[in-house]
Amino acid sequence: MVSWQSFLIDFFTYGLLTYSVLLLSCYFFFATLSIGEIRNYLRKNSYTDYGLLAGSTQAPSVSILAPAYNEGANIIENVRSLLSINYTNLEVIIINDGSKDDSLSKLIEVYDLYKADFFVNSQIETKEVNGVYRSRKEVYKKLIVVDKQNGGKADALNVGINVSSNSYIVCIDVDCILEQDAILKLAKPFLENTKKRVIATGGVVRIANSCIVESGRLLKVQLPRQFLPRVQTLEYIRAFLLGRMAWGRLNGLLLISGAFGAFDKEIVIKCGGYNHKTVGEDMELVVRMRRYMQEKGIAHKVSFIPDPLCWTEAPSTFKILGRQRNRWTRGTIETLKLHKVMFLNPKYGFLGMISYPYWFFFEFLAPLVEFFGIIAFIVFACLGVIQWSFFFSLLLFIFSFGFLYSVFAILMEVLTYNQYKTNKNLMALILTAFLEPLIFHPFIVWSAVKGNIDLLRKKNSWGEMTRQGFTKEKVQQ
Amino acid sequence: MIYLRVLLLFFFALAICLIIFLSFYLFIRKIWRREYGKWDRMIDMLLRKAIFFHEGNTGHPALIPVTQRFQANLKNRRFYNRFIKKIIAAKRNVSGQYGDNLRHLYIQLGLDKKALRLLRSHKWHLKAYAIQQLGTMGLKEHLPRIYRYTNRKNALVRIEAQIAILNLLGVEGLRFLDVTSYQITDWQQIKLLKELSTVPQAELTGIDKWLSSGNSSVIIFALKLARNYRRYELYENIVSCLDHSEPNVRKQAISTLTDIYVENTSEVLLARFDGETYENQIAIMDAIAVIGDVQNVSALFSYLDAGKAQMKFAVARAIVNGSATGLECLMSDPRSKTYPLTDMIPQLKNEMKW
Questions:
Q1: What stretches pass through the bilayer (chain A) (predicted)?
Q2: Which of A104, A368, B157, B295 has its CA 20 to 30 A from that of A430?
Q3: By the CB < 8 Å criterion, does A401 face chain B?
Q4: Substitution target from A197, A301, A404 for chain B, most B beta carbons within 10 A
């Protein structure tokens, strides 16, 4: 009986240790891969004159799709920011998703809009469109505002796809701030098609809390003053600069952030557009597009650009952050479930054999393994079947690696884009990296566990996301 | 457990080393930033001096005065890179005697020799760097060396060599299109077209040859050249590209014909409609909507029932713009009273007003 118990405990202990080592090895591998990829990108970029594309009639035509729901407070500035983007072949489509506030009337008034006769080619089924508005003013000729019945973000984006007349779509959150050259940089990979068709491109999303924003433009980058947004800054640097760059190099990306991504419209339509039945519509679309291409046997690629191109406001309270992470978890599980046929299926090549299993074992299962692992270890230690010293050694081992990985990400950021420049900011980031595993990470794990529970309870709400708004520049006295 | 503790200590030690490196790097960068300000002033002063340099009437090529300190600084890699960046930018912005002066300065400082050393490097980015310098500086004597790289495997080296050849030879430099075996991406084509916009087009020959190239991307590029430079004499060659096996080539040919067309171009396009891919069928209708001049509008009506709404809309637009009576004809058709034409026609009417 005793030996059976000890076997079980050993199996559990070493199983968990093996899982941790595997996960850490993956991170180590990503870090190594991303170094080469970023270096190559920066070298190539030094020969790239994006101004060429800005003025070229040969540049691919792009439609920016920005769904808006009750964004009345900032919609005018946000739209102005989008209209000021440096790109010739561009249309900006704002989809008013049945807002209950004065978003539409504000837009009509400020941009001198009229209800245009517009044929909406419903290639993707959506909720009803109430009207399509265009501006009487030549200066706003790029702008199209669509008013529709409320149907959620995915449905709004599908309406945008139906209305758009261009070959590529860039889907963004309306409250995001784009860099002036964001579309140029995002469009370039589509022009470099040779053997593989580029079906989507993602860019780095950065945290804009505490940054100075004026008239929808980012004037000064600052490290968030509050702990939660600051720790998310670190998290985003790690995820985008190391994780996604590495997956991009391997051509195994399954996710392009819903806040900012460009897609080949033809393939999006062939795949049926965004799925409005999942809360993880951004990941689901990328997986579906890749699955479609794989099934059709068409060589393809999902590109990723390390430049910081899009700035967004991160949740600054645990309540909102919890909702966001809960939703992300549900979105991941729903997507994995919808495409379970790909799991370890050689027919889907690298995606089926590596990308999907990674997401399953290390993105979906990791918080569950961590949560139940820690509980079990505490119970075992309390019962005296394992030593507390071993428990703490294991915990410190994970902690030290997490800290090392974060410091490495900060180093990469400094060596590449160095957005936070001063020593003070970097020391604040390092301190954040030290505190993250103690405060932030347990909360994220708990939110993910709650996401799993909510999914089992068939809860599929988006969760309200209140935002504080960006910091505006103080008027000089 | 001992392994766990060793690893733990190793991770912490490594993290501390990285933090020390980070602090040191930031400190050094701060010093560099101060240096850059001084260097920029020094470089700008020399470039200004060089641009406006007069040789005088001695008959001998005179040397542009360069301080010893400047020459010593050139041995510093960061200074060298900064100088090269600035001299390249300056050379691109000036021409004639001013440009020649910058070239003399570049040679006088022995930077051409350094560029040739970089060209022999095994690293692709150094090769590209060298080619960019030699091309921008207009050092024709190195043309054969650069030309070899126009068909290299590395895309960046290849495109920099192609751009350099255009810089050195003008439109004649496009002869690399005769032999290139790699695809010329859309991005490369945009770059090449931009470079060509700055050189005289008078003697641009060879488009007809490239229109029948075995490399489909060369044909597409040639079609763009024909369109950009309005080469009407190539009309028949362009029309023959409508029968190419690659849909992308045919699509570009359709697009080119919207700018280079004759009386019966719409009919020529329409004749190929049935055999085309869906995407190219849409392109044909879009082209007809631009060209107009359809002899027999009624022929278009037969396509109104074909395909999806997108096609219907493209056909309707072609009918409306295809002839002076297009809109009336469409309105008198019974189908105009049914969806989706009921929604399409008001938009088309609006478009006509614009």
A1: 12-35, 358-386, 392-414, 426-449
A2: A368
A3: yes
A4: A404
Cβ–Cβ of B11/A404 closer than 8 Å?
yes
- Judging contacts by C-beta atoms under 8 Å, the chain B residues touching residue A190 are 186
Model's pTM, two decimal places? 0.90
- Per-residue burial over A99-123, b = 16 or more CB atoms within 10 Å of its CB, e = otherwise: beeebbebbbeebebeeeebbbbeb
Report how far residue A429's alpha carbon sits from residue A224's, in angstroms, rounded to the nearest whole number: 10
For residue A474, pLDDT beyond 50: no
Q: Does B352 touch chain A (CB under 8 A)?
A: no
Q: Where in chain A is the domain with CATH 3.90.550.10?
A: 53-318
Of B11, B186, B347, the CB nearest to A191: B186
CA distance A477 to A292: 58
Please give, one letter per residue, the 3-state secondary structure of chain B. CHHHHHHHHHHHHHHHHHHHHHHHHHHHHHHHHHHHHHHHHHHHHHHHHHHCCCCCCCCCCCCCCCCHHHHHHCCCHHHHHHHHHHHHHHHHHCCHHHHHHHHHHHHHCCHHHHHHHHHCCCCHHHHHHHHHHHHHCCCHHHHHHHHHHHHCCCHHHHHHHHHHHHHHHHHHHHHHHHCCCCCCCHHHHHHHHHHHCCCCCCCCCCHHHHCCCCCHHHHHHHHHHHHHCCCHHHHHHHHHHHHCCCHHHHHHHHHHHCCCCCCCHHHHHHHCHHHCCHHHHHHHHHHHHHHCCCCCCHHHHCCCCCCCHHHHHHHHHHHHHHCCCHHHHHHHCHHHHCCCHHHHHHHHHHHHHC
The C-alpha atoms of residue A238 and residue A421 are separated, in whole angstroms, by 17
> B340 preceded by cis ω (within 30°)?
yes
Contact assignment for A117 to B11 by CB distance below 8 Å: no
Q: Of chain A residues 36-75, which have a CB less than 8 A from chain B?
A: 43-44, 47, 52-53, 56, 58-60
- pLDDT tens figures, A162-211: 999 999 999 998 888 998 889 999 999 999 877 899 999 999 999 999 99
Spatial strand order in the sheet of A212-214: A217-220, A212-214, A471-472
Question: Nearest-CA neighbor of A471 among A264, A311, A334, A238?
Answer: A311
pLDDT for A249-271, tens place per residue? 999 999 999 889 999 999 999 99
Q: What is the pLDDT of residue B323?
A: 82
Place of tokens 């692709």: B124
Q: State the maximum Cα–Cα separation within chain A, in Å, rounded to a whole number.
A: 84
Residues in contact with A409: Cβ distance below 8 Å, sequence separation at least 6, in sequence order? A234, A237, A238, A241, A242
Taking the C-alpha atoms of residue A188 and residue A54, their distance in angstroms, rounded to an integer, is 11
pLDDT attached to residue A86: 84
Return the residue matching tokens 């059709």: A296
Whether residue A339 contacts residue A287, with contact meaning beta carbons closer than 8 Å, is answered with: yes
CA-CA distance, B242 to B255, in Å (whole number)?
11
Tell me, what's the pLDDT at B349?
87
- Does domain A53-318 match CATH 3.90.550.10? yes
Cβ distance A284 to A278 under 8 Å?
Answer: yes
Confidence (pLDDT) at A471: 58
pLDDT in tens, A94-129: 999 999 999 999 999 999 999 999 999 999 999 999
φ, ψ (nearest 5 deg) of residue B342? -60, -30
pLDDT higher than 50, residue B292: yes
